[in-house]
Specification:
Blueprint (H helix, E strand, L loop, with lengths): L27 H26 L1 E6 L4 E4 L1 H7 L3 H4 L14 H12 L4 E8 L5 E12 L5 E10 L1 H19 L3 E6 L4 E4 L1 H7 L3 H4 L14 H12 L4 E8 L5 E12 L5 E10 L1 H23 L10 E8 L7 E7 L5 E8 L4 H18 L5 H12 L9 E9 L4 E7 L4 E4 L5 E5 L18 E4 L5 E5 L1 H4 L10 H11 L5 H16 L8 E8 L2
Helix pairs in contact: 9-10, 10-11, 13-14
Length: 527
């Protein structure tokens, strides 16, 4: 049986479409609903993921907080109730400038996304850094009506950056040269001290190898042992001699430290060079001064000669190693005794050797001469050809003839000595009669000045370090104070008088360091 044809209406012969019932499975509306549900589920998953990892806040156009997630509450320390309705000023740290926030608002007000790092302050006062992205949310007519801020904490990273920045700043400003090389020795970084110490610019050094500093002093065995040690992960320390760009050599204390990655593989080497040239010079000078001091100590008489009716004593109080002062008791012609006191210009081994040479000539020549002026002339003629331009010796030589009760002296540029009577008053000043030894090759000192001696008189010889000693007010001790001490203690022994004078100088100087060598010789007469 044939089915009946549908009833035709109107002029059209087409069949009218059947509209699906809303919500019926398989209908377009049902498919859309399922798609919407799926998209809502995806959004919920995205929100959940953000809530677990990011700090989220939504503000209105005025910047008032309308919503925050749990992470925001957790990191800020504020409750939702304390945050909602407030602006982000509630968590502001005061770190950023006004212009910083003005730029932020200009950006998001214009509908653009702002990205940057912001430092906030938690409720307990601690600071934290956030890597922030603020996205405008479009409302009606396309205008921004809300702002979504998504942040990630970067406090640890900022602390690491700040630490690295501090380290880099310290390395850039340290006085020691620092350079970093790769595993194969290629220089990757040098600090400013490296360029000033070696003469190589940063452009010249980076890309080259440490061979540019090689002096040739260290041999292959040294470098073979160095590489074996640092490739084994151990630091290398040594005193080396390096060469600057201009060819000058310099002593350096060098430390090379291997740098390892997380897997324990050596990736770089950090080298620190401390210039030790000046220290080496100072150490050499110290050794030289100590040696000079030992030489000079052997030149001073250990005991004064024993003469009937004469009390002799002498002492040197050096300001440091390498004393420039000199005194001696020498045998002279006709059984007399010479009292010598002098001062060699300069300090160190050179002046010490010069003093030793002068002492040897003085002792040799004095044996055959009775006039101190002749002795000084002979010593000067012998020394002058060997003296450098800046070296000379001041020397006072007095000849004491015990049997004849006479004192004859000559003074080659030295500070004056004094002859005091039995009351301690100055009887004579033993002033200079010519220039210091070594200044002029041909110098005649004339005839010695002679004095008849009386019992109880005191001959006093000194160096300029005594009279030029200063107190804290920069006032000099002077000759007058020294003579007053001798006068007050004239009945004591020669050695005791020397001690009295020394104590008086130290008390006068207070805590001031002794600036110059001080030497004194006292000759008491009881003839």
């Amino acid at each position: 049986m044939k089915p009946k044809e549908p009833k035709r209406t109107g002029a059209s012969s087409r069949t009218a479409p059947v509209r699906p019932v809303r919500g019926v499975s398989g209908s377009p509306n049902g498919i859309a609903d399922r798609k919407l549900l799926r998209e809502l589920g995806e959004l919920q998953s995205i929100k959940h993921a953000l809530d677990q990892s990011a700090i989220v806040a939504i503000t209105d156009r005025k910047g008032i907080i309308r919503a925050v997630n749990d992470k925001f509450v957790e990191i800020s320390g504020y409750s939702r109730e304390e945050l909602i309705g407030k602006t982000h000023h509630a968590v502001g740290s005061g770190h950023h400038s006004k212009s910083f926030y003005q730029d932020l608002w200009r950006t998001i007000d214009s509908g653009r996304v702002w990205r940057g790092e912001i430092r906030n302050r938690a409720k307990d006062g601690t600071y934290y850094w956030l890597d922030t992205t603020i996205t405008p949310l479009a409302g009606p007519a396309g205008r921004s009506w809300k702002y979504l801020a998504i942040r990630w904490p970067v406090t640890d990273r900022k602390a690491t950056e700040e630490s690295l920045r501090s380290i880099f700043n310290a390395v850039e400003h340290t006085a020691d040269a620092v350079f970093i090389t790769g595993r194969e020795g290629d220089i990757q970084y040098v600090n400013p001290a490296f360029t000033s110490m070696t003469g190589y610019s940063r452009d010249e050094a980076v890309g080259s190898t440490p061979r540019i500093l090689k002096s040739g002093v260290q041999g292959r065995d040294y470098y073979r042992a160095l590489w074996k040690r640092i490739l084994g992960g151990k630091a290398h320390r040594a005193m080396v001699v390096n060469r600057k760009k201009n060819g000058d050599l310099f002593y350096a204390e060098q430390t090379i430290t291997p740098i390892q990655d997380s897997a324990g593989e050596i990736t770089q080497f950090v080298s620190v060079i401390k210039d030790m040239t000046e220290r080496r010079k100072l150490e050499a000078q110290k050794i030289e001064m100590e040696l000079a001091g030992r030489i000079q100590q052997k030149l001073y008489p250990q005991q004064p000669p024993r003469l009937a009716g004469v009390d002799l004593a002498g002492a040197v109080f050096p300001a440091g190693h390498g004393c420039g002062d000199y005194f001696d008791f020498v045998d002279m012609a006709e059984g007399s005794v010479g009292i010598a006191i002098g001062d060699v210009a300069g300090h160190g081994v050179g002046p010490a050797l010069l003093m030793a040479e002068a002492r040897a000539y003085l002792r040799s020549i004095a044996r055959t001469h009775s006039d101190p002026c002749d002795v000084l002339g002979e010593v000067n003629a012998t020394l002058a050809p060997d003296m450098a331009d800046n070296h000379y010796i001041t020397l006072l030589l007095a000849r004491l003839d015990v049997r004849a009760k006479r004192l004859v002296y000559a003074n080659a540029g030295h500070v004056p000595g004094y002859l005091l009577d039995r009351e301690g008053d100055v009887r004579a000043v033993l002033s200079s009669v010519g220039p210091p030894l070594g200044m002029f090759e041909r110098t005649v000192y004339g005839a010695g000045v002679e004095f008849e001696l009386e019992p109880g008189e005191i001959a006093f010889f000194l160096t300029d370090g005594l009279v030029e000693s200063e107190n804290p007010g920069e006032e000099e001790f002077g000759y007058g104070r020294a003579l007053q001490v001798i006068r007050a203690h004239r009945r004591d022994s020669a050695q005791e008088i020397i001690g009295h004078v020394h104590r008086a100088v130290r008390e006068f100087s207070g805590r001031a360091d002794q600036r110059d060598d001080i030497t004194r010789v006292v000759c008491k007469l009881d003839l």
